[in-house]
Amino acid sequence: MSAARANGSIVHDPSGFALPSSQRAAIRWFVYVGFGAMGIAVIHGFAQALNYAGINILTWFPGLQSYYQGLTIHGVFNALVLTFAFTNGFLALTTARGLGRPLHGPLLQASLWTLILGVLLSGWAMFSGRASVLFTFYPPLQAHPAYYLGLALLVVSTWLLSINLFWSLSRWRRENPGQRIPLLAFISVATYAMWDLASLGIAVEVVGLLLPWSLGWLDGADPLLSRTLFWFSGHAIVYFWLLPAYVSWYAFVPRHAGGKIFSDPLTRVVFLLFLALSIPTGFHHQYADPGIPEAMKFTHAILTFGVFYPSLITAFSVIAALEMGGRARGGRGLTGWFFKLPWGDPSLSAQVLAMLVFVLGGITGLINASFNVNQVVHNTAWIPGHFHMTVGTAVALSFMGIAYWLVPWLSSRELRGRRIAVAQSWIYFVGVLVFARGMISGGLEGMPRRTFMVAATYSKPSWELAGVLTAVGGTIMFLSVILFVGVMLATILAGRRRDPGDIPFADTLVGPAVSGWERHFDRFGIWVAVTILLIVIAYAPFLVSYLPPKLWSSGFSIY
Amino acid sequence: MAKIHRYERAFLILSAIMLVVFLAALGYAAFGMGLHLPTRAGQIRPEDVARTPPFDRPGVREVEPGRWEAVVVARAWGFNPAEIRVPVGQPVTFRITSVDIIHGFHVDDTRINLMVLPGQVSELEYTFRKPGEHLVICHEYCGAGHHAMAGKVIAE
Hints:
The structure holds 2 protein chains of 2 kinds. Chain A is mostly helical. Chain A has a single domain (21-546), classed as Up-down Bundle (Cytochrome C Oxidase, Chain A). Chain A is 67% helix and 1% strand. Chain A contains 17 helices and 2 strands. Chain A has a two-stranded parallel sheet. Chain A is globular and about 65 Å long. In chain B, strands 1, 2, 3, 5 and 8 form a 5-stranded mixed sheet that branches. Chain B folds into 2 domains: 1-36; 39-155, Immunoglobulin-like (Sandwich), CATH 2.60.40. Helices cover 17% and strands 37% of the residues of chain B. Chain B has one helix spanning 6-32, and strands at residues 59-64, 67-75, 78-80, 83-86, 91-98, 103-107, 113-116, 122-127, 132-137, 150-155. The termini of chain B are far apart. Chain B is of the alpha+beta class. The radius of gyration of chain B is 20 Å and the shape is elongated. At the A-B interface, helix 6, helix 8, helix 9 and helix 12 of A face helix 1 and strand 7 of B.
């Protein structure tokens, strides 16, 4: 009883497409701002990795007042600026290409300039030492208002971008009544639909509580309510980081490998599951918190295990697509196809290596989510060990892999230094494995995260090897990013000019159904309603039993 | 739905079974074996901590025969008391709050791993099985002196 299916294209018009050059320029600058922020962030990351081996190079940083000031810059520029900027650019492009129509030009410019203003404001606060509160900014540690305002503008930039995507989608629907949304646009828009809902928590926290509190308009802060609002957004944000990489793994990596996307409907199901399940999971970051009933924490544990499921589906689908590619290239046997993949393509090598690391990132993440098991690792070095394999590699190394075709496409240049680029992905892979091995083993021995170990008044012998591995791995990662930045600069400044052609999206093996119930996948309204229902189930009991806010804490700027 | 390949179907079913088994094990460990997470245990205004029992007298005491309470007040950058002596083999309930900013309370080599928030009481029961000394670290960033905020628990 299979429904009639369209052909396997994931875009509206596979024959070709030209984006207005002003929109291409805006997307290019999103990507440059993102990687520029990463370039600054990793210099601090290098110093922080050395810190775990007892080596202090902070004095080399002019004007740096403390370890924690650098750590704030490292977190904000990597986890917020790189991710928001790159994703705004990349998914604007994939949506436009998927729909085969341009976006709203002025809105795209507004989104870019809002992001840049946000970077400048938060950057000024951080670099001048007025906001050494880390990227989680838990009150009642208090930062300068410019820091909160800057972060709010970063989020507003993503909202402007998503308004743009929804506007473009609705125009496309009017131009193409009754047609299925092209898969490439569907998964891009679904990512932003999830983030729009998810970001409400952090928006209420920053704009409703912290910004007025830092300006003296509110008497106090509520630390527990703030943490709860932060983690309402704060776990979903990891999917806002990850889903652009998944867009690439589903829609582009099969093409690099010479395979096809496994299935159109299953890909839509995966992204809808992420939409519905990403948000009602925040308490698993607060297992160790007071003030939240244990039963509510267990509800979030169940939902967190639920959101692990679409990643397991992804593991199957993406590996199947790679296997198709490897076998088409003559790979034989159970594993032979893996070695036949086109490893000379840096876009492929970076992203397949990112996937391999993500297996470890996923396993350690499931351990973090595991309720009382979390008590062994909460707030130890294990946690950065985990998330440098997820956002720090599955996402960041994938973004670098994407950049190896995207930046040449955006700048109409040929990639310079292809072999260096391939080597770069392997160097990063080795570096993060050594780094995470250090952090994770140290964390199991109680080594804390977010700590200036050089000056700590305590230590344990078992942290020594862990600290050395952290420093060695972090140094290798840093060198790898220098190579990446070098390849990018060489490409942008000295790459041979060429006609960019089309972007390298793949086809699907099983196309979308043109009739039948699968069409309901495309009705975002239904899925947003389901998401809101799950959010209410997960958060209403806490809010009803806790509110009104307890604004008891005055601000401290003791950094 | 499009036909699902049988390998994929098997993978999806096994994945679901794995997640359900893991969750069941965790639920049993928490609610069957008593390895609880901290739960809601009261609120306290930061400025009232010094005059509100039990936080007006930080320290360890026997609240009823065989049951102990360890009351700790966290502030930037230390714990009061900094040295906590508890009995071996008898349940000790840790009760902790903060008078200023968010801190952490991690007793090394145990599952006593708590966030300490101003405004809230953090509570966890634990029984030390062996005598020994444990490092206590503030494991949440709390400003310029964070890396100097530590103490110890001595089980004897």
